[in-house]
Amino acid sequence: MLQEKIDHLERLLAENNEIISNIRDSVINLSESVEDGPRSSQGNFSQGVGSPLLSLTVDPADCLFASQSGSQDSDVQMLDIYSLIPFDNPDGGVWKQGFDITYKLSDWDTKPLQVFVVPHSHNDPGWLKTFNDYFKEKTQYIFNNMAIKLKEDSRRTFIWSEISYLSKWWDTTDKLKKDIIKSLLGNGQLEIVTGGWVMPDEAAAHYFAIIDQLIEGHQWLEKNLGVKPRSGWAIDPFGHSPTMAYLLKRAGFSHMLIQRVHYAVKKHFSLHKTLEFFWRQNWDLGSVTDIFCHMMPFYSYDIPHTCGPDPKICCQFDFNRLPGGRYGCPWGLAPEAIYLGNIKNRAELLLDQYRKKSKLFRTTVLLAPLGDDFRYCERREWDYQFKNYQMLFDYMNSQPHYNIKIQFGTLSNYFDAVDKEIGASRTNSQPLFPVLSGDFFTYADRDDHYWSGYFTSRPFYKRMDRILESHLRAAEILYYFALKQAQKYKISAFPSSSSYMALTDARRSLGLFQHHDAITGTAKDAVVLDYGIRLYNSLMNLKEIIGSSALLLILKDKQSYKSSSFDTLLEMDLKQKSQGSLPQRDTIQLSAEPRYLVVYNPLEQERSSLVSVYVSSPKAQVSASGKLVEIQMSAVWETANTISQTAYEISFLAQMPPLGLKVYTLLDSTSSHPQLAEYALYNGNIENKGIFNMKNMKNAEEDITLENPFMKLHFSQSGLMEEMINKEDGKHHDIKVQFSWYGTTSKKDKSGAYIFLPDGEAKPYVYKTLPIVRVQRGRFYSDVTSFFEHVTHTVRLYNIQGIEGQSVEISNIVDIRKEYNYEIAMRISSNINSKTRFYTDLNGYQIQPRMTMSKLPLQANVYPMTTMAYIQDAQHRLTLLSAQSLGVSSLESGQIEVIMDRRLIQDDNRGLEQGVYDNKITASLFRILLEKRPVVNMEKEKPVSYPSLLSHITSSFLNHPVFTMTEKRPVPTLQLLGEFSPLLSSLPCDIHLLNLRTIQSKKDDKYSDEAALILHRKGFDCLFPSKDTGLLCSTTQGKILVHKLFNKFTVARLIPSSLSLMHSPPDARNISEINLKPMEISTFRIQLR
Ligand SMILES: [Zn+2]
Questions:
Q1: What order do you get walking across the sheet with 435-437 strand by strand?
Q2: Is the pLDDT of residue 41 over 80?
Q3: Which phi-psi region, left, alpha or beta, contains residue 711 (left: φ > 0; alpha: ψ -120 to 50)?
Q4: 124, 201, 236, 310: which one is catalytic?
Q5: Which of 207, 419, 441, 702 is most buried by a 10 A CB count?
Q6: Is 236 an annotated catalytic residue?
Q7: What one-character DSSP code corresponds to residue 1028?
Q8: CA pseudo-torsion sign 281, 285, 289, 290
Q9: Ligand 1 centroid distance, CA of 124 (Å)
Q10: DSSP at 904
Q11: How much is the average pLDDT of 771-775?
């Protein structure tokens, strides 16, 4: 067995002899410790177990990237801009947040002003109404009328972005209308912009899900319309992330537009004419990520704020607000229909606005969007807008002294005209547009109204979103492998088609939830429920796909996969009973007959992780390949101080191949020797102790402590962490965890779903009596749980020599349903001298340095955290890793604070017309990682920073937990393999397999032979020690040999593609070696056999 293992490892890592010898030694050590160590060392917590101590091999060349990047300068670095802007908010006159714009009539003497008026309609896939209700009541009419009204006059144009709506309409409309739409796309009257499933949120959305909904939209377009969007259109997301710019660039886009940017930044950019720029990634060493970006200058994307600086004037050119209609102009002046008698006057009034707006840009081309939310539903609105504007255009174009050329256009018409001007000016040495790096958070639309509340709003669903993402990815990968095996072994019983349809459905549910009113938590209660049900149903379906695919892959005799009851023979043991409840573990019934427990490692590296399941017997025994496995047995708690008499938790260390399955057997055996966890309860009393050793402690005379091979933690009497001692150097760190409350301001405008308007600094969370504190000490993990009124807080330390041992796990169950106008935060304080600098991730893809600024209100210093935030000084970095998106800040040196839930009774006047008080009992999961920084030059702060490899991998563990499955009911005849290992070896440590996503068939609703293999090479900081990470992988300068990739499959074809499969590079051909640059995400079309 041991020899087999060594051989296996040898094959895996044939390229690196040094690692192999390490592994050989370590595997021997490990097996010795498993055989001899544990039973005699029960209760000895200083000796860790787990994967062997290994030095991670990092190719020195892989360190160059992080050390070099950030040294090149952009013309505009957003961090610097924030230092420059006074944020004084003076009254700018008609353009309240801007300034008076002047021009000379001669400004257009040499080159006329070229105006593109771009009609559009912003359709939220759910907000005040559900997606279906909006479609029924509004959106379907927009499409129906579009077909008629655009066809009437070939000069009319329109743009559309949300494919979720277009595809729904497509399924219900007739061929005649479909043909009209195709011809409108063909002749350029209609343009699809961005073309994602939704217009995603850019703060809380993870890059996995953003990419997935982009692919879903683009795949739908490819199949049904054959069009390839080339311009990005994001007018409503509440702040903008450079991750989106990167993803669009990699999808083959050359231009994009953004709108919701802090009003003071807009003003600054308007003054410097930098509203149009090349957006470059902070990490880019050259200019390969540059994408042309247009920032809309004014307050909103509605018509009053898009023709020019004066909304009072512009509103009069929204002909849907003509007197007698449903809408009017709040500025007191109504639109007038255009006729011969007023046309000169009206044309000149509008022209003045266009000219003023044009002075904010560097070209003579002007973009004038013409639309609003759910516009162009009624046929007469099309007539009002298009006819009146056409009269204005005809008149303006007929007046040579106006020096204007004005017409309807699409977004790309505008960008093409700008490109033409860039081309014409290329003779000058000075580039026409600046290069900008950084992001556009945190958004404020007026005064001190910062949109940092939505980073946390409805956190229950932000957590559920991440769980769905990990399930979707796991199901995609297992499904493609199973599909290939089903084809190979001709297993017709494998539900290839129904599973693919369920996968498609899940992609679309997740995609819909990335909408900027969904994951943001800014929709009405009923709409939130609608999203929740979609997420929940998809989660259930994905569990079935994972189960049925895993079963086929792990079956010894594939031909035995026939019974219809095999659909979900392997069932996930973690169950969520309804859309609004927390996942609960099922209890696995044990008997003397062994039953299978199949574990799936969704990560692309070999992994050693603790697996925990509930079983029905205290005499549980676990084995793998006939060998007993050491287990920790813990009590299952029904309340803080009562244990279940029917269920027990067993935990054991599972060794799993990359992306692979491993089979364990469970049974009830009188000869089992589980290592029972021990308990101490403070400030409470345990009555029935069952089989466990439990002590009721009167009051804690000594500190509560936990320790593992890496660290020792000290806790206060209320169970809150106060100190961390690093065992390697004996250093003490004051790392304190505390809770606090924010109230909402007493001023008129208060916090709501979008906006955070606190009543000053957070107040400490106070409790009159000490909470019950339960301490558990076990072989594989130990933890301290405190039962506060509003939060059940658990700090867990894994007694494992691998990844899981090196950080502290924190899980909170928050319940603030009895409070009003409160937000609850968890604050980590430390002696790290971080001053005002901290770091947050953007979309789980990259790190953005932040600066806490005293010139800004507290709520402006809150940023989105998708997967991590860290602070550092010359010696240490402290990272908070997160398994859900939440708002985070660092208001004092040494602090990281995360807002975990908010309950607000009032609307914050952004259209939602309700507060957020549908709170649920909400789980959140974190890890705290303290790392030493050996040699750091703190003098020059770069605008870029990278996590260590350990931090990246810890984040992967947190976001991609191991899946455990068992038989629905024991089937005695079932024969499973010991493991299924689809990869020849672990992928390099810095490479993440983002997805292996089966591509749709072009003919029907089914799957094709191909999958999209999406790989991300992470950027990492080499200055952190990488030894003892417990990882069996190395880095290889981004190179992977294709024939060394898969174990059970042959790569028939592997062809590079653009990110969303829309484009093939001109030299696309089958490749034998994958080469990834740091930070790059690359998609390949792969065909396995
Ligand atoms: Zn919207």
A1: 76-77, 435-437, 276-279, 291-295, 255-258, 231-234
A2: no
A3: beta
A4: 236
A5: 441
A6: yes
A7: T
A8: positive
A9: 5
A10: B
A11: 96
- Roughly what angle, to the nearest 10 degrees, separates helices 207-224 and 496-513? 120
Which of these, 129, 116, 161, 128, lies nearest to 142 by C-alpha position? 161
Q: How many CB atoms lie within 10 A of CB 106?
A: 8
Per the listing, tokens 């936990």 go with: 706
Phi, psi dihedrals of residue 665, rounded to the nearest 5°:
-115, 140
Checking if the pLDDT of 1071 tops 80, the result is yes
Query: For residue 448, what pLDDT band results from cuts at 50, 70 and 90?
Result: very high
474: closest CA among 597, 368, 604? Answer: 604
Report pLDDT digits (tens) over 514-532: 999 999 999 999 999 999 9
DSSP summary character for residue 319: G
Torsion angle in degrees (nearest 10) through CA of 683, 688, 692, 695: 30
Distance (Å, rounded) from C-alpha 316 to C-alpha 161?
Answer: 26
CA-to-CA distance for 749 and 758, rounded, in angstroms?
Answer: 10
Residue pair 676/636 in contact by the 8 Å Cβ criterion = no
Top mean pLDDT of 297-311, 420-434, 671-685 is at: 297-311
Separation of 236 CA from ligand 1 center, angstroms? 5
Q: Is 150 left (phi over 0), alpha (psi -120 to 50) or beta?
A: alpha
Q: Tokens 């991609």 sit at which residue? A: 960
For 313-358, how does the pLDDT look when each residue is reduced to its tens digit (9 = 90+)? 999 999 999 999 888 999 999 999 999 999 999 999 999 999 999 9
Hey, what are 157's tokens? 């144009």
In three-state secondary structure terms, 957 is: helix
Angle 459-488/207-224 helices, nearest 10 degrees? 60
Residue type, 856: L
Residue 21 pLDDT level (bands cut at 50, 70, 90):
very low
Distance 238 CA to ligand 1 centre (A): 9
Say which amino acid occupies 288.
V
**Tokens 């008997």 map to which residue?**
591
Per the structure block, which two tokens stand in for 455? 């980073």
Q: How far apart are alpha carbons 560 and 570 in whole angstroms?
A: 14
CA distance 924 to 886: 9
pTM above 0.85, yes or no: yes
Residue type for position 855: K
Cα separation values, 809 from 28, 463, 466, 676, 868, Å? 29, 16, 17, 21, 14
Report CA(430)–ligand 1 centroid distance (Å).
38
Q: CB of 731 within 8 A of CB of 895?
A: no
The residue written with tokens 């030694």 in the block is 25
- In a 13 Å sphere around the CA of 983, the CA atoms on its Cβ side amount to 28
Rg of the chain over all Cα atoms, to the nearest angstrom: 30
Give the three-state DSSP class for 762: coil
Q: d(Cα 204, Cα 944) in Å, to the nearest integer?
A: 20
Q: How far is the CA of 424 from the centre of ligand 1 (A)?
A: 36
User: Helices marked H in 997-1081 — which ranges?
Assistant: none
Beta bridge partners of 829: 736, 895
- Residue 955 and residue 868 in contact, taking contact as beta carbons nearer than 8 Å: yes
The residue type of 750 is K
Burial class (CB in 10 A: 0-12, 13-18, 19+), 750: buried
Give the C-alpha separation, 663 to 624, whole Å.
7
Residues with CB under 5 A from ligand 1 (ion): 124, 236
User: How would you classify the pairing of strands 1051-1057 and 1081-1088?
Assistant: antiparallel
End-to-end CA distance of the chain: 30
| 3-class secondary structure, 1004 | coil
